[in-house]
Design goal:
heterodimer, A: alpha+beta, NADH Oxidase, 5-stranded antiparallel sheet, 3-stranded antiparallel sheet, 21% strand, B: alpha/beta, TIM Barrel, Methyltransferase, Methionine Synthase (B12-binding Domains), Chain A, domain 1, 4 domains, 8-stranded parallel beta barrel, 25 strands, 47% helix, 14% strand, globular
């Protein structure tokens, strides 16, 4: 069985433009930014930035793609991983406090709840980006290049794969992340994804994923 | 010898890692280790045997994940029975001469409990209960609950163990680098809750190496009266030549754990990455060490899911506002099942600085058991203050204590036999700090000495249940000074007597003293100061009373409890604001819409100025009838914003800010109209369907519908189809709104629609949520797909 590692990161820098975009604001307006910055102030120190991950060698056998922790026929994933030797499977979460803040404001101030929702979405994305860069840089030293990250529920890679992902990473124990019966994650601002690594020069370490909000 | 006796005198050596050893023996990724009890029992036995031979007094059975969420009943029984018998064989075969026990290992379910996950608290209790019953049946010596990283799940497991077997129970939690559980609890909070519920030993395992866990362990040693457990990892894992190795080696591990044994740890072993080699090193390094003696700590505390509140020198404020007595608007909220109203009372008291919230929802015409349980669950979902469960109904008290995520304050018991017979068993079972009123069958004694006597009787009776005096706090009853000039003095003497003679803490419902007098707050504030000077530990009080807050802050500063008077200075700077009109702090957002309004109130709503909108409404109501304010001011303002949003001139957050401002205006109107009922357009039911726990969209719809005059019954999230259909029928609701976020929960939506169609054929159904489209909505048979909240409002208006 593969080693599962756990990393805790410092808070990535806030991307205000992204937060506003998640809140449905296309062009910035001063009055909204005032409310947003009060939300950001409230959130300081309450989030955790945790990632657990493990590396798996992969093999292609006909229609099947064997990732070590799961076998899948997903074409989208196969295409993404073409030419790769291994994948890094990771799960990331910013913790339960953001869910509490959203719930606390749900009836008190839906405008704030909406912003906390947007902040959470931006935070988990930024955390994934941070981890992605971190692992890609490390693998680059070994001569590997990263593919865009790919999540369960993406294209024809079934959301049910979350079950195998959770079993392989032991997410509840490592980072306090759990999977509900309906395949939702708790805390809600969490992501799981696969990053393929191939021995090529081509790098692309930004990517998309299934953000669960 | 019983393990609970042994651990009082000696160091109890536990075992080390199991998972890491199984992986080394070929356990595959994702394979359930508990299966090996059946398929490879010899491997498991070798591991247990190696630990006994290394000097462990205890091995934990290979049952970390053995529960009915992962195995069928039949498989579970086989797995647990063979797990225990394998351990028994190892015990027989080991030549080690130390006393040996077998612990039934219980790990977390891997699922998050409601409200942030989908596992119900009682279901979690039942999951653990099944494993516990099997463990006792097959002969485990005690229960070892471990690696729990959520306080609520820990409570469910401990409760299950206590209710389903007679064995001792050890409880160990997994802390992060920040010294807290994943869901936020501190060691002091866990100590308060677990000791209160009767755990036999408590402590820490997994996550980090021994050194990194040092601070957490020391916090346990500070607060715990029961033995403290330590089972750390061998540091952090890294890969070396394709294998996993850990960065703390056996000798270093043994030394670091021994240091903590010296400080008082009583049960020591290892977790991930540790092997029999680590345990032998530990036994060797720590043999001959005198552990600090087990001392009973006389610390009175309560806890929430994040922190403990300790009663000591600094006075504790208990907010009294969640209580319908004498409050029309609150009573109305209770009758309408308006939990939001209660939550708001909680949040604003927290913002005023109280440490604990009293929760009283007793009203003759409501189901108090249901309401108190719901109020506790909802409050603890969003407010991290400990709660004081305030009820005279024992059923409601038990329901609330059972669901409470922490150690609650219990309000109250008194010197009457009947009261003690009812309350003490509950306090013993669920833990709690009990408020004891110094009255008995013959009433409230006039003299302080006689109240002291009742206090002594109460302590003696509590002792019979095994309830320690640290878990009783006395309320010697503030009596009305206008009716008896000696009243206040006797109460103050009683505070002083109970504090000095019994060494117990005291609490008072301060405001009773001023009953019948003018300007009561002035009297209350001074009485509070006098009581504090006589040793009072806590007050049940109104945090909106400036005089009370003045007394609190000045007392702390003058009594040397406020470093640099920092808290006082902070309070003083807020004083003018709290006396003057509502502050304009939140009034940030002028909205970019034409500045062409017929009135200041309209402008405040359009611009999203909450406080201003409330204030202007209040002023307006002095001259204008409420319904005219609604029809001529609020609704037109909402229409301006609604149209702006529909034309994409305004963004969603702006729409919401206006809606909030309108709501605060409505709130003023509502309290002004108490009695005469506003005519609601119709009853609209909202719910997020079963399996889905995202509800921000639904809440936005609710807010807007209410603004437009619809009565809304919000059933919440993760609501079963049966409940939605039943409520629709009960209220004969013409409209139901359903939301879902994930594709996986759309089937639940379809099922709900079918059921409503069958049972409430008159009802129109509107659906929405991130995953839905017009096509989806058609496919599952909804009447309407609404792409946003405004569209839902327009639809609702169209079918009236």
């Amino acid at each position: 069985m593969n080693t599962v590692y756990t990393n805790t990161y410092d808070a990535p820098e806030f991307n205000m433009k992204e937060i506003l975009r998640y809140a449905g604001v296309r062009e910035s307006r001063g009055e909204l930014e005032a409310l947003l910055s009060s939300c950001i102030k409230e959130i300081k120190g309450r989030l955790t930035y945790k990632v657990c991950y493990s590396e798996f060698p992969i093999s292609f056998c006909g229609e099947l793609l064997d990732l070590g922790f799961i076998r899948t026929e997903s074409r989208g994933l196969k295409k993404n991983l073409e030419g790769c030797e291994s994948v890094v499977l990771f799960a990331a979460t910013v913790g339960i406090e953001i869910d509490r803040l959203i719930a606390r404001n749900a009836s008190l101030s839906p405008a704030k709840a909406l912003f906390f929702q947007a902040i959470g979405a931006e935070r988990i994305e930024s955390l994934c980006d941070t981890f992605n860069r971190d692992i890609a840089d490390r693998k680059a030293l070994e001569g590997y290049a990263a593919r865009p990250r790919f999540s369960a529920g993406y294209g024809d890679f079934k959301l049910e794969a979350q079950k195998e992902i959770f079993a392989a990473l032991d997410c509840p124990r490592r980072i306090g992340l759990s999977l509900n019966e309906s395949l939702l994650m708790s805390p809600s601002k969490s992501v799981t994804a696969i990053i393929g690594f191939a021995k090529t020069k081509k790098t692309d370490n930004t990517g998309e994923n299934n953000e669960d909000n | 010898m019983k393990i609970t006796e042994y651990i009082k005198e000696r160091i109890l050596y536990l075992d080390g890692g199991m998972g890491t050893l199984l992986q080394a023996r070929g356990l595959a990724a994702g394979e359930l280790p508990e299966r090996w009890n059946i398929t490879r029992p010899e491997e498991i036995k070798r591991i247990h045997l190696a630990y006994y031979n290394a000097g462990s007094n205890v091995v934990n059975t290979n049952t970390f994940g053995a529960n009915i969420l992962k195995f069928s009943d039949e498989d579970l029984e086989k797995i647990v029975s063979s797990a225990v018998s394998i351990a028994k064989e190892a015990r027989e075969e080991s030549a080690g001469e130390q006393p040996k026990w077998i612990a039934l290992d219980i790990g977390p379910t891997g699922r998050m409990l409601k409200p942030y996950g989908d596992l119900d608290f009682e279901d979690a209790v039942e999951v653990f209960a099944k494993t516990v019953r099997l463990g006792e049946k097959y002969g485990a010596d005690f229960i070892f609950i471990e690696t729990m990283n959520d306080s609520y799940e820990t409570k469910a497991a401990l409760l299950a163990a206590k209710e389903n077997c007679g064995l001792p129970v050890f409880v160990s939690n997994a802390y992060g680098e920040d010294g807290k559980l994943m869901t936020g609890a501190s060691p002091a909070a866990m100590t308060a809750m677990l000791e209160g519920m009767g755990a036999d030993a408590i402590g820490v395992n997994c996550s980090l190496g021994p050194k990194a866990l040092g601070a957490v362990v020391e916090e346990y040693l500070t607060y715990a009266s029961v033995p403290v457990i330590l089972k750390p990892n061998a540091g952090l894992p890294r890969a070396k030549d394709g294998r996993t190795v850990y960065d703390v080696l056996p000798e270093e591990f043994a030394e670091e754990v021994s240091e903590l044994i010296k400080k008082g740890v009583r049960a020591a072993g290892g977790c991930c990455g540790t092997t029999p080699e680590y345990i032998s090193a530990l036994v060797k390094a720590s043999s001959g060490i005198e552990s600090a003696p087990l001392v009973k700590k006389n610390i009175a505390s309560v806890s929430s899911y994040t922190h403990a509140v300790v009663f000591g020198d600094s006075p504790i404020l208990i907010g009294e506002r969640i209580n319908p007595t004498g409050k029309k608007r609150f009573k109305q909220a209770l009758k309408e099942n308006d939990i939001d109203y209660i939550l708001k009372e909680g949040i604003s008291q927290q913002e005023k600085g109280v440490h604990i919230l009293d929760v009283n929802v007793g009203l003759p015409e409501i189901d108090e058991v249901k309401m108190l349980k719901a109020a506790v669950c909802e409050l603890q979902a969003i407010i991290d203050l400990p709660l004081q469960i305030d009820t005279s109904d024992p059923l409601a008290m038990e329901a609330a204590l059972r669901r409470y995520n922490g150690k609650a304050m219990i309000n109250s018991v008194n010197g009457k036999k009947e009261s003690m017979d009812t309350v003490f068993p509950l306090a013993k079972k669920y833990g709690g700090l009990v408020v004891a009123l110094t009255l008995d069958e013959s009433g409230i004694p006039k003299r302080a000495e006689d109240r002291l006597k009742i206090a002594e009787n109460i302590l003696a009776e509590a002792g019979k249940y095994g309830i320690d005096k640290k878990d009783i706090i006395f309320d010697p009853l503030a009596m009305t000074v206008s009716a008896d000039k000696e009243a206040a003095r006797e109460t103050l003497r009683a505070v002083s007597l109970i504090t000095s003679r019994l060494g117990c803490h005291t609490s008072l419902g301060v405001s009773n003293v001023s009953f019948g007098l003018p300007e009561r707050d002035i009297v209350n504030g001074t009485f509070f100061t006098m009581a504090l000077e006589n040793g009072l530990s806590a007050a049940i009080m109104n945090p909106y009373s400036l005089e009370m807050m003045k007394a609190y802050h000045t007392y702390r500063a003058l009594a040397g409890l406020d470093d640099n008077c920092a808290d006082y200075i902070g309070f003083a700077s807020s004083v003018p604001q709290s006396t003057a009109q509502p502050q304009a702090q939140n009034s940030t957002p002028p909205v970019s819409v034409n500045d062409d309004f017929s009135s200041p109130l309209q402008r405040a709503i359009v611009k999203g100025l909450k406080e201003q909108a409330a204030q202007l409404t209040a002023e307006m109501l002095a001259e204008t009838p409420p319904l005219r304010v609604v029809g001529e001011e609020i609704i037109p303002a909402l229409d301006i914003v609604g149209v702006g949003f529909e034309n994409k001139k305004l963004y969603l957050p702006q729409l919401l800010m206006s809606a909030e401002a309108a709501k605060s205006a409505f709130e003023v109107i509502k309290s002004n109209m108490s009695g005469e009922k506003a005519t609601d357009k119709c009853r609209f039911i909202l719910a997020t369907v079963k399996g889905d726990i995202h509800d921000i969209g639904k809440n936005i719809v609710k807010l807007l519908l209410e603004n437009y005059g619809f009565a809304v019954t919000d059933l919440g999230r993760d609501v079963p189809p049966e409940e939605i259909a039943a409520e629709t029928v009960r209220l004969h609701a013409p409209l139901v709104g359903l939301s879902a976020l994930m594709t996986t929960t759309v089937p639940a939506m379809e099922e709900t629609i079918k059921l409503i169609r069958a049972e409430a054929p008159w009802c129109k159904i509107v659906v929405g949520g991130a995953v839905l489209t017009q096509e989806y909505a058609d496919a599952i048979g909804a009447d309407k797909y609404a792409k946003d909240a405004m569209e839902t409002v327009r639809y609702a208006e169209s079918i009236l």
